[in-house]
Structure formats: structure tokens, C-alpha cells
């Protein structure tokens, strides 16, 4: 993700990075070159202009379809962000709630915290299709367990399973009853739900027919536009076509960029930063000297 | 579902499959042929043109109605996807949470996992109206039970009932208390809720009046369009009508294609693939040698 | 509700039923007759045309308001459908979850199932303002209890109360603990929540000012339209006015038809069919011979 | 709230009440008088017309902003209605669920029901800023308790506190365990959540900048409109300006009317009626003769 | 936040504060000055006009994108308000529910209430990046605990941890069972969820590409507009450009102002006032004389 301050208006106008120029430049250029050809033929060979009536009529539907598509993508972007926000919340809640019961067993609590920090790293890696990563705290976990988890069919599920086992261990050691175990396990369940939500967004693009129909309509519209402009615009048809093509192809490309926000692109979510935030929040709770933080409520 | 990479822009332009060409070709052709007739009569028999004012005025409402309808359908598509994502999540959660308590009884846990994998297959078959299918793991279940479930009035409900029975059996064997049983059963309850949601989408199309009014308005609009274009477009009326008809009938058809996303069409959800993912995730948890996976938390 | 196949495009074009023709015919005809008068006066008495500028400017707001209103109504339709889908789910869940605990007491379980099937019938009757109906299974319940429920101030609440009593009876007979009773009662609570949601939709139409302002604006727009068209359209003003009036009044009427989807109209929800589905699902669980279904999990 | 039947189309056209005429009449008249001045100057003093191009270009944004604002207000109206629907549901659920456990203690159950009916009345009064009202059943409660609640810093919270105390009393008298108490108290918690939601809507209008920018843009648009119409409309500019101003100011006013739906205006929610419904539903459950309703499930 | 009465229409027209004039004045002025130059060159040097066709065609997409962006920002504003409404609700619920169980231990209950009032103050400070603030009640808490919390890595989490410890202390002192503790702790969990939601909104602006493409398109549109108007508007091009630029840049600026509503700007949420409301509600529950409020339910 690119950090920016929305209150600074003119600062980013020259940015190439994150502004999709590289992505749409060929489409827009093809359209502009075509408009050069149309103007040249119209002026020097034979007239080939049409009235802009059809572009006016079809433009409304096309604009609506285009902007709705981009907003559906934004909804996916925002839902993805919400899911990761949920991952932040549940790791915090699990750490806080378990800390109260496990204060006397720094080793068990430490292991739980470390596996909990591993979950977001494993999830990010799974969503990005990169090799299994368990984050910086994994080095403090038993290597054979880490290796077993790394080799699992679904790494984040294996981490979650490990967390459930530790919560079960806490009950068996008598720190809480079965009921508390299940409540704490609810947080693990939510983590899996949120990851499942991310996988859903990642694996399901817009329906094929929607994407294709919109693109075909865009191409029909933009490439026939010079014919509708050439008679009154003359050579100004070329910059005019550029503006429309840049606007329309750009809106479409925004939709593509953000509909799967879990990649490494400039407009994707900052998963590393979120993972690091979780890791820092939880590391602050780690008992430094082997004992849980002392609590002395003085009511 | 057609797999595609939304970042590849030009790759799919020639696709017939999934692009609704077959569905809308007759409507669009009828409209184009009609426009040929209109132009011919106008040029050679007697003028029959009108001004495009009405098409401009009515076009806004029609476009809005059309695009809103398509987006309502997309919302149904996405809701259907969410429901199946929920089915993935709950099967995972049930398997993980039950695994902690049933680690000592590989037979019971195995039966639960196998019935759990049967649920999505049975649901997909029920939604598609095909004959009862319980997936590849059903072969490892007692044949008489499988036969009884296959013959039930509502197969997925019968599978869920079987799962509830197994959870009850776990309590009766003393692996957990009534409270844990109910918590685990919540996952079964959610599975039934999600399936109910899918049945709701499947059985309830857009209101009849909405669908019909939109189509009648579309036909009125597209078939009167040549009259409004013929005077200034001449023979160019024919491709112009084609573009508008292709755009409008196409948007309407997208709405039809995705409003019930549980079928076998090109734009429907990949239910088989989701079922297979669930089956793989759960099979990985199956105790291979009759014993549940060993756990040794080393805190 | 009218059953239809959205993939069949031309089949329903001649339908009068469900297509709102009867509802809007007088409005549209009034507008068309008025346009005949306008054209006649304009051509034979004195010119009375205006430019269409204002219709273009106001048309955008009006179209947006119109289509948004219809979509708000569709949201209510769909929310109503979801609530009834929730009623289906919770009756299924209650039957399934209670069945596990009440397997040994076919009489109690049978009574619970029968009262559960009565709930949707009672709810549908309450929403429609018809006389209390408890469905076909009510005949198998004690007549004095049925009579008492039928005479209650709020019949579905009385049915729910009866269900809660039976769940309490189950606990008193020792089939489960207080905790299980409350969990099962959650399903009853959800049934009441869903019914309350339906009552909310039923009793709260669109805000009065919204409805009235839209209709006044529609009438101003449609009845002034012939003035804006007559100069360039001549007698074609009459069909042109017809098309616009048909489109606009039709969209408004869709909104009216579906904003309260619990009636008996062609575009309302098929409540009887949903009730019958529930009744069939639950009847399949009724112990035929006085004994609950045998279960033999063979893990 | 004004009761009306949306299926009666022409019945309400003459209504002044609830139709915002009083609210917008001065704005619209100012605009119309200004247009009279513009036409007079243009025709008799010196031409002062402009082309309508800018009104066409700016009109789209303005219309979108206007209609979106009104729909955001409608969403708040509908959310407010949902929250009160939730209050209906939870009072019913509390009464039903508590009734099962408190059947033997008519005095305690009666007090709980009476305090429960007081909650919606107290909430409505708090939202409307009127003096504390506890509804008709408050007369049957101990006067000193009623006086204490009336004098509290936040009356509905004090009522809820009283309800929680009664539920605690029920546990102390041994009618149910701590667990049941907490489950019943969940309904009280939901009542507080719903009231909090209403307070949120009541206290947070649309952002100031949104409201002000829209109104400034509306005034700029409507007061410059006569200049754009006068050349081709002549004196017809006056009714044309009237229509646009009436439409636009009216849409804006709908947004204002319904964004805080808890007042006593014609378009606000019928809080009294909802309170009365709750009171009637719960009074029907009051043990008439000091004993709770007898239950004899005959399974 | 600026307090205003939406029913007073003309009162705020002269406001500079909160009306974004300061924010957009340079952009709008640049555009106006440019239009002066265009008109001067066109009239006195050489014609440089174009037709407005392209502005009409592109204006629809641009307007849609602009208004959708502003509405997405409004959704964030409203979601932020909902989250703080949730914080109000949960602090109330925790105070009410805990009060029932802790009535006998005024010291413990007082400490819990005071820490609970500290949570919203700490959250507001964290969202605004200001130095840790625990509100007016923090002075009544043990200074060393306050200092420790102020120095924590994440102050609101540390407050929540303190609240969990006090709830645990209540259980250890025997006022309630583990089950009740967990239920009360759910409210703390919700507080953390709501804070996490606020952090999500605060840290995630609109996608960079969306913001930048919209601004570039706005600049292209507004700065080319004088060319499209100059031929028919003459010097009236200057005020016309002003109106469009003011409208468009203003809508964009609204989106920027309200997308992160947790700051100290005129259009941000009144966090201080919400914190004070919570503090007052909870202070009213503080046992004045060291004993919890007496309760004497007289059923």
C-alpha cells in the first residue's frame, strides 16, 4: 500500500507508482492512435463521421456499469480490510482473555502468544501463494512443531489447530473449566472464519460475463468515439479521445486492482504492517522474565 | 465457473463460452434485422423518423433500472458465495474443535469427518436438483446408513441429523459434557442456516413484475431506437442499433445468469471445487492409522 | 407468487397477471388522453409547445428518485424473504436439535414438532390479517389447547409460548439440563425475532412525504411532457407519451407492489408454499410408530 | 406518522399535512419570484440569458448528491424502525422466556412485565426530550421506585437497571441458576443496545459540510436556472422554474424530515403506537388472578 | 463537530467554519483564473473553443465516481459513529450487569467503573495520536497503575486488560462464577472490537489509485471546461466555471473531510462529548457513600 495524506491535494499528481499508468497505457495509446487514423482519413481521404447520439444514449448505461463495478471492487477491498481488522481484534482478545487465566504458567501462555502471532503471517503467506511463513516469533517455538505445521496441507489451519491444542492443555492443567476453554476457542474459530472470508474474496473474481461484457462495451464505445467527435472536433478529436479513454479505462482498472486486495501491488492492503502490529501488540504481553505480568487490583 | 486472470485484458475478447453470446444472439439479431427494415423503408418508401428526445429522457430511467437489476443479481451471486464460504468455515471449525475432544476415539472422529464432508456434496446436489450425492468419502461409511440418508425427504438435513447423532454419541461416551456438545452442534446449525440461505436464493427469482416490466421497456426502447436514429445515421443506424441492443440485452442477461449462481453454467459458482477443497482439508485431519494426531504442546 | 423461468425471455410478454397492467392502466390512459388533447389543440387551435430543457434537467433527479424507491422496495421484499428463510432454518434446527434429546419420548417430541409447524401458519395468517390458522398438523393437537391459542391476543406469540412450555417440560422430565433448554429456546426466540421483522415491514410503508413527493413529481413530469414533445413529434407525441408514462408509472408501481410482500398478490412471497415446505420437512421427522427414529452410529 | 394505503394513488394528492408544503413554500416562492424578475428584466430591460450547458453538466452531480442524501436519510429512518422493532422483539422474548421460569411467582413476574412495558415509554420520552414517562402500567408499580427512576440521570437506563435487579431477585429466590439469569439479562442488554442506536441517530445529523455544500449548490443551481431558460421559455420560465425548485427543494426536505425519525412530526415513526403494542402484548401475559397461566402439555 | 439544526435552512449559508471554503479556495481560484485567461485569449488573440460533447459524455462517469466516493466516505463516517455508539452501549451494559453482582463491594465496583470510563478517553487519544489521556476519573485510581497503563505499548489495550483483571478479581472474591466472569468480559471484548474497527478506518484511506484517478480526472475536466464554454458563454464562462469547480471540488473535499472522522476538525465526530456522556452515565452509578445502590424489588 502507498501511504498518503488525503489532505495534500497536488502532491501525488506526478506519481507513476500506484496510479495505474503502466497498466492502462497500451489500451489508451491504442485508442489514441486509432483516433489519429480516423481524423486523418476523415480530413484527407473521405468523411467518416457519425452523430454522437448513440454515445450519449449508451454512455449512461456504460458509465453506471463501470462505476458500479468499481464500487463492487471497493466493497471487496473494504471487506478484506474488515476481515484483517477482525484478525487483529481476535488475536488481541485471545491474548487478553487467556492472560487472565494463564497468568501462573508463563511457558504455556508464551507458547500460545507465539502461535497466535504466527497465524496472521501464515494467513498472509497462504493468500499470496508464497512459501509458508510463521513470522519472527516462530524461532522461539519448538522446531519440530514448526516444521510439522509448515508441511501441513493448509498451514494457517494447522496453526489454529496448534492454538486449540494449547487451550486444551490449559484446561487439562486445571487453569480453567471446559466452558472457559470453549469461550477462548471461539476466538480461534473467528480467526478461521476471517481467513475463510479472505480466501473467498481471493478466489472469486467478478463473474466472467460481467467483466467481459463491460470490457467489450468499453472497447466498442471508446474506439467508435472518434467517429462521433471528428466532424466538430477536427484534430482536437485526438486529445478528446485520450481524455475519455484515460478516464474510462482507468476506472475499469481501479476495479481490477482492488478486487483482490491481498497481493503485493501498490494498491493492495498492507498485510505485512498489520502482521507486525499484531506481533508488537502481543509481544508486549509476553512475560519477559518467565512470569506473567503482576496484577494488583486495588479497588 | 470460468477461471480467468482479471489482469489479462485482451485475452478473453474472443471467448464465446461464458460471454452470453449464445443467449442474447436472437434478441440482438431480431433488433438488428428490424433496424435494417426501418432504414430501408425510411430511405426508399417513406420517411418514418422521430426525434431522439424520448429516448434520451426514458434512457436514464431504463439504464438505472437495468444496472440496478444487474447489481441486485450480483449481490445474490456474492451472497451465495458467502454462504458457501460459511460452509467451508464451519466444516473446518467443526473438524478442528471436535478433534480436540475426540482425539482418543479415531473411529468416532473419522465417522464425524466423513459425514461432514458429505454435507457440502449433498447440498450442492440438492441445489442443482440432481440425484443425491454424498461425495467420495461416503464409500467409507456404513452402506445402510448411507442408503437411508440418500432416501430421506431432504438429504442434507438427514446428513446434518447424522452429524448431530455422532456428537451426541461423543457425549454419551463421556468425551465431553452436554455444554460442549451444544457448542459443537452450533456449527451444524450454521451449516443448515447457510444451506437454507442458498435454497432461498435458488427458489426466489427477482419479482415477476420487475423482470417483466424491465424486459418490456427494453424491447420498446431498442425496437423504437432505429426510428430515432435513421434520419441522421442513415445505414449507420444498423450498427448503431446493434451496439445499443448488444449492450442493453447483455446487461440484462448478466443479471439473469448470476441471480441463481448454483447451477452448472459458465458463470455459476464452482461448487464442485469448493466441495473438493472441504474434502481435502478434512481428509488431511483423518487419523491415518486409526489413531488421532498426536499432540505434544511444549510450552 | 408467479413461478417463472428467467431464462425464458419472450414467454411472459403477453401476461396480464402479475404485470401491473391493471394497476397502472388508468393513470397511463389519463396521460395518453391528455396528450391527445394537447396535440389537437396545438395543431388546430393555437401552438402550446415548450422546449424539453426542463424535462431533461428534472428527469435525472426524478429517475434517480424513482429507481431508488423501487430498489428500497426490493430491499424490503428481499429482507422479508430472508426473514421467512430464517423461519425455515430455525424450525429445522429446533426439530433436529431437540430430536437428539427427546428421542426417547415420542409423545413430547411429536407435540413439539406439531406446534413448531403451527408457527409459520399462524405467522402468515397474522401478517395477512386473516383468521387464525395453525396448519394441517393442528388437528393432531389437543383441541382445548388449540382453541386457547386461537383466541389469544397475538396468536403466533401464543404458539411460541406453547413451544417454550414443551421445552420446559422436557427439562422437567429430565431429558436435558437448564442449559440445553435455553439453547433450544434460542431457536424459539429467533422465530419471534423474524416474525417481528415481518411485522415491521408490513406496518411501515415508505415515509409519506417520500411517496407523495415522488407521485406529484411524476404527474407534473408526465402531464407536461406532451407540451415538450408536440412541436417536433406531432401526432407521434401520443405514443411517445405512452411509452414514458408506461415506463415511469410502471417503475413506481413495482415499488408499491413489493414493498409489503406478505399479501396474496401475484408479486408477493409464496408464504403458503414456505409453510408447506416446513410442514413436510418436520413431518418427515415425526416418529411414525410412536418411537423416535433409531440411531446407530457405527464409527 | 400518517397512515396511508400505498395502493390508493390519487387519494393523497391534495394533502398539505405531511407533504412538506409548509416547509419548502418560502424557498420555492423566493425562487419563483426571482424568476419573474429575471424574465421581466430580460424581456423589457436588457437580455440576460445564458446557455443551459452548465446546468446540464452540473445537474448530474447535484441530482446524484441530492438523491443519495435522501437515501442516506431513508436508511437512518429504516434503521430507526429496525431498532424499535428490536425493542418490540426483546420485550416479547424477555416476557416469554421469563414466564416459563417465574410461573410460580406472579408478583415477581408481574413486576418484571410492568417494568418491561415502562422501558419503551421511557425511551421514547428520552429521545423526544419530553418529561419522563413510564407508560400506563407504571401506576401499578411501587410509587417510591417509580419516583426514583423518574429522577435518574438517564431514565431508560434506570428502568433497565430495575429489570436486571428483578432478574437477580428471581435467581436469589431460587427459580433459576446464574446461567439462566445471564441469558435473560441478554434481552435487557439488547434493549440498551437498541436505545443506544436510536440516540446515535438522534444526535448525529448528516455531516455539516455535506448539508451546507448541497444547499449552497441547490441555491446556486435553482436561482441561476431562470437565466438559462428565459431565452427559449419566455414567461414559461416561471412555471418551469417552479417545477424544478419544487422537485429539488422537496427532495432535500424529505432528507431533513426523515433523518431523525423519533420526533412528533407527520413523517416520524409512530413511537406511541409501538409502545402501546408492546404494552398490550405484555399485559395479555399478566397473570390476572395472581397466578401465572397454567400449562398442561399433553404430548 | 458543528452543532446545527437541519430544519433551519438559511442560517448557515454564511458559515466559513466547517464549510470547506478554506480547503478548496486555491483549487477553485486556480481554475477561475485559468478560465479568465482562456476567455481573454479566445476573444482577443485567437479562438480556442471546443464543443461540450466530451464534457457531457465524460461528465456522467466523473459525477458517478465523485458522488460514490463521497458516499463511501459517508459510510465510513457513519460506521465510525456506530462503533462509538457501540462503545457507549457496552460501557453501559458492563456497568449495569456488573453492578448487580458487585453491589456488595463498592470499592471493587468503583474501580471497575473508573477504569471503564478511562477506556473511551484512552481510545480517543490513541485515534488522534495525542498523548495518553484517561479522563477525569483517572485521578481517583491508584497513581502507579495509571502510570503503568499510560506507559503501555497500546494504552486502550492496557486499560482493557486492567478491566479484565478486575472482573477476574470479582470472581476470586466469590461474587460470581467463572461463567459470569466470561459473560461480563464479553463486553470488554466488544470494546476492543469497536476500537479495532476505529483503527481500521483511521489507518486505511481510500485506495491510492481511486483517489488519484478521480483527482486527475477532476482537474482535466474542470480546466478544459472553459474551452467548451467560451464560445457561447463569453465572459460568463468565468462564473460558470466557478460554479462547476466549486461544486465538484467541494464534493471531493467532503469525501476527504469525513473519511477519517476521528480528528479534531469541524466535520469530525464529537469524541469528547461522547466520552463525557459515558463518564456521566457511569458516574451516576458510582456508590456515593462507599455502598452500592440499595435495591428492594417489591414484586
Automatic annotation (TrEMBL), chains A, B, C, D, E:
One of its GO terms (cellular component) is plasma membrane. It is found in: Cell membrane. It comes from the Bacteria. The chain crosses the membrane at residues 24-44, 50-68, 218-249. It holds the Pfam family Bestrophin_2. Keywords: Cell membrane, Ion transport, Membrane, Transmembrane, Transmembrane helix, Transport. It is a multi-pass membrane protein. GO terms for molecular function: chloride channel activity. PANTHER family: UPF0187 PROTEIN YNEE, VOLTAGE-DEPENDENT ANION CHANNEL-FORMING PROTEIN YNEE. Belongs to the anion channel-forming bestrophin (TC 1.A.46) family. This is Bestrophin.
